[in-house]
Amino acid sequence: MKRRLRKFTATPRGERFRAHYDRLQQRPHLIRALLTIGLGLLMLALGLVMLVLPGPGLLVGFVGAALIAGESRWAAQLLDRVDLFLTRPWKRWRR
Length: 95
Known about the structure:
Shape: flat
Number of domains: 1
Strand content: under 5%
């Protein structure tokens, strides 16, 4: 797990999720893909529910989207764009 996180964070921003997708696609497995997408959709749904109910809705929704991004190139590209979009204001705010 630590090795995977290091590889993920070592990749430049804006390419992280696509690189993760590419690494997972090198060893495809149908059961893993179905479970990952199912869990990701469930977490996205829970995140949406938690936006109106008490709970960490944005965090749970983002984790669900990240799970789906491991199996979908389109989702990986979208999360890379979101990563860049959120990083710029964060850097300006931290100065």
